[in-house]
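Cross-posted from the bioinformatics board.
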Amino acid sequence: MKITGLISLIFIGGLLFYGALDFPPWGDPTSPASSHLSPYYIEHSIKDTSVPNVVTAVLADYRGYDTMFETIVIFTAGIVCIFLLRSFKEKAPESRMYRHIPTGIILRIEKGGKVPHESEYFEHIDSVWIPYDLVIRTTCRMIIPFIQVFALYVIAHGHHSPGGGFQGGVIMGASFVLFAIGFNLRSAIKQMSEKIVAFICALGVLIYAGTGVLCMFFKANYLDYSALAPLLRTDPVTARSHGILIVEIGVGMAVMAVMVVLYYNLSSAGKHDEGL
Amino acid sequence: MMVTIMILLIFGLIFFAGGAIGIIRFPDFYSRLHPAGKLDTGGLVITMSAFALYTIQPFDLEAIITSIKIILIVVFVFITSPTAIHSIVDAGIRAGLEPWEKQEDK
């Protein structure tokens, strides 16, 4: 079985290299991409879409179909992480650590022992991360809102400056990861449960694909946002700009959710019980 | 004005140079983190305040907004950098790394 896998891998890799040999040389000015495609984008993107950032215009409008499948690749990565790592079997751990909050005494309860309820007196803590980090918690609480506002800014301002759905989504996901590191994994899951994360992840992809389907209802091609002009009450050129924003929001949601899912599963080995 | 900016810049660069030497020359993990934290807070505050003063040379609204943005960068680094150093030191202690002590000459 291993041999067949290796042979097929070498065969497909060889095909890939054989196909890549036919590409024009890197940065060749006479290649079709440089002589026909790039000048068109540079000259027409502001006229067609009224987006000053050419990269965003190409990414989300001219090549929107490509970007949709990039988003689906990220979505698939999140799903695969859940399938590979998540263990739904409730297996009691060797021991658990609890802190008695009024006195600060830490109890270690072995397997089979009586476990106290989570209340204002007892708090379940990680067995590898014992001290109460007041400095880190306060800083996280102070910084996270700014990080999230900045993430929204990066998503919404992708038309004019470097940024967009992917970058903003990663920053947004990082704010949740920071919360999980500064506090603990359980309180992060309490804030944003696994189901909600999976829902947002799928919703982001749905927004992207749904925008394309909506364009088809207005008798235009898939992902041709200029057809949305009557719906958005603007002219077709501005409608393309707004369509890019809608799509970027979808991308941002999917990327953010996948970041959070990856962190939840990798840090706790799929148990969602104790982690960093 | 220009003289103040120059003095601040030179002072900040001396701070940075001293910190960079300190990161290399100090004997162990914890004492190396000490100049690393000082660099990001002290040195950055001095040099960035020089930049903020430099940008408001033509005193108009646009320059003031740019200057405020620079000051915001300083504020965020001032909050986050010492926290990062603090958590690294915490992790080192938890991992059982002994602090360096001067060896007695025999």
